[in-house]
Amino acid sequence: MNEQYKRFYCSSDNVGEVPEYILRAWSADVGELHHPRMKKTIVNNCFVLNQDHMPFIKKWKSQMNKVLSSDIQLVDSRNKNYFMSDESVLSSMFAFSYDAPKVGGFMLDKDPSAYLVHFSLKPKPWQGWNINSYKNFDSLMNLLKEVKLHGLALPHVPYSLREQNKKICFADAYIYRYVRFIKGCFKYNLNYFSIGISNV
Asked: Cα(27)–Cα(84) distance, rounded to whole angstroms?
């Protein structure tokens, strides 16, 4: 998961760990431990807590209110220390909070016959495809075939998850990329134009 920090590393940082300057900021913000209990991140879409951990969950929420801006985005490049928003704050708490729960071993890769699918970017595959997620098209089709083969019930399969639409989905992914690019250019130029007017 620390692949996310590769653009933030300094020459003295250890690749695969949270950069030292971010750890220092987390320590100051949490204000409890001075040395990190861990130097890696916690992924908040695959962890398990029980009701005994509710005080920690409330503490996590309080910390988010403290360090994240009110207009926070899911991924916010304006804030290097917490650019993964709630996930970054959770990692800071596990690193520097006195009462963070003990971290167990990673269990999602123990059964080679099991599947875990997580698509974090937009659009989701059941809505459409982007260039990054499209590389998983065939794998997902094979998984859906396995489900049918074992007689498991499936909900309505949308257009973007039908194998016969593969080429069209590929084209859609490129169109989606270029539409986003054009919108980004337009937004940048509009902001530049606005700054120019304000300086007149």
From this structure: 17
